[in-house]
Amino acid sequence: MSASRGKFNSRIGFILAAAGSAVGLGNIWGFPTQAAGNGGAAFVLMYLILAFCLAYPAFMAELIIGRHGQSNAVESLRKISTSKSQKHFAFIVGFGGIVCAALIMSFYAIVAGWMLAFTAEPITTAIGATQTSLWLTEQSLSRNLIFTSIFTILTIFIISRGVENGIEKWSKRLMPALVAILVSLTIYVLTLDGAVDGLKAYLIPDFSLLFKPSLVVSALGQAFFSLSLGTSVIIIYGSYVSKNENLVTLGVSVTLIDVFIAFLAGLLIVPAMYVAAAKGVQIFDANGALISGDTLVFTVLPALFDGMGSVGIFVSLSFFSLMSIASLTSSISMLEAPVSYTVERFNISRNKATLIIGLIIFTVSSIIIFNFSALFGFVIALTTQYGQPIIGMFCCIFVGWIWHRSSLLEELKSGNDNIENQLFWKIWPWYTKLVCPLAIGLVFIHSVAS
Ligand code: TRP
């Protein structure tokens, strides 16, 4: 099996592919939406704390499990289990993660479809097809079905071609362009009237909101979603990392890139909302809180681009096309989770597995589209706020309580001889064993209790 397994060809290839998985709608759609909906800066602060203190250690746990296992999530978790009950547990956690990834893909494809539609809109506007432009930018069954299916087909196409040809190549091209456009847009927004108020709302926290249960749960879910945790995806990516790589620095790089881009996106969107407010757009609800919702980014940004005059069309086109590509480098990681399991478990061809699973996911997306108000938010909360943190917590339990310490150390030593003397090895093992599961558990008890 190992001969046919994909491998990332280079260190930067892995960083970009994992960062490509991490950076996506979660950063540029999810994070600003959540920040606006949860009191701005307080959410940002809690997010940063949880991303570094809980999501990063869990990311490392999954990465190490994957590289050690050299297989899909179920097999990799089984490899570190010894007793029969542990092996059952491994199946539940690994398979649960795979199902979670597939469910995430089903709503992700819908939002990514919106990105595709908004990419097409500047073109239809430029050629004067006003009706089409309206159809592209307004919620409708037909638009959602068509663009969700286009996005799903694109993902299937890339995944069917495998790791080297698909994931790595695509990821390498995107990240620098995305950062460049985000930075330029942010600088532009900050020069506009009203932006300073937005900056304050984004950066100066109201500490009384910090421990609000709904805020903490949202921030935790957002951090896990953004790093693609608790879905077996990082385990699989870990299995494609060469034994010569230093996992600790890889993990740090990916986390930093991911958090940085989310922070940057918020720095763009929240001030842009206040700029819109200065122009008379309603951005606060009756209670004085910022209006938020799934389509926030799709109203604030086009309004901003419109205000730029004719340049706006190009900016809009490049922004939404980059976002569509960023969504693709994320969705391919989601689809890779069930596909690699099916290929290795049932021994069927990669093409066939990709097609079957892609179709199943598209069916679920369609069910969500037809029952949008009942299902969309529900599936997001179920997978990102509950599924991901809980499965991520189980991965920490695997590393902390089930995996033999000597074998864990050996895996970490590969690519990093000196690990025993580093701070990481002095803190991370007990931290993952005790603090992560406890803290994640506490967040849930806290939220259920209130
Ligand atoms: N992290 C991605 C984002 O922020 C989403 C994502 C990609 C993901 N792959 C995943 C989420 C796997 C869960 C599981 O857009």
Task: Tell me what the structure shows.
This protein is an all-alpha fold and 450 residues long. The longest helix is centred in the first third of the chain and has 43 residues, at 84-126. It has one domain: Hydantoin permease, CATH 1.10.4160.10. The protein has 18 helices and no strands. Bound molecules: tryptophan. Residues 21-22, 24-27, 101, 104, 225-226, 228, 231, 233, 330, 333-334 line the site of tryptophan.
Can you give the helix content as a percent range?
over 70%
Number of alpha- plus pi-helical segments: 18
How big is the Rg?
A: 21 Å
Class from helix and strand fractions: mainly alpha
The CATH topology turns out to be: Hydantoin permease
Number of domains: 1
Report how far apart the termini are: 49 Å
**Strand element count:** 0
Ligand set = tryptophan
Major beta sheet, specifics? Answer: none
What do the pLDDT scores average to? 90
Q: What's the CATH architecture name?
A: Orthogonal Bundle
Percentage beta strand: under 5%
Low-confidence stretches: none
Keywords for this structure?
single chain; 450 residues; mainly alpha; Hydantoin permease; 79% helix; binds tryptophan
Strand-helix topology:
Layout: H1 11-22, H2 25-37, H3 41-69, H4 73-79, H5 84-126, H6 130-137, H7 141-160, H8 163-190, H9 195-203, H10 213-226, H11 233-239, H12 247-278, H13 296-306, H14 311-346, H15 350-370, H16 372-402, H17 405-413, H18 423-449
Bound molecules: tryptophan.
Tryptophan binds at residues 21-22, 24-27, 101, 104, 225-226, 228, 231, 233, 330, 333-334.
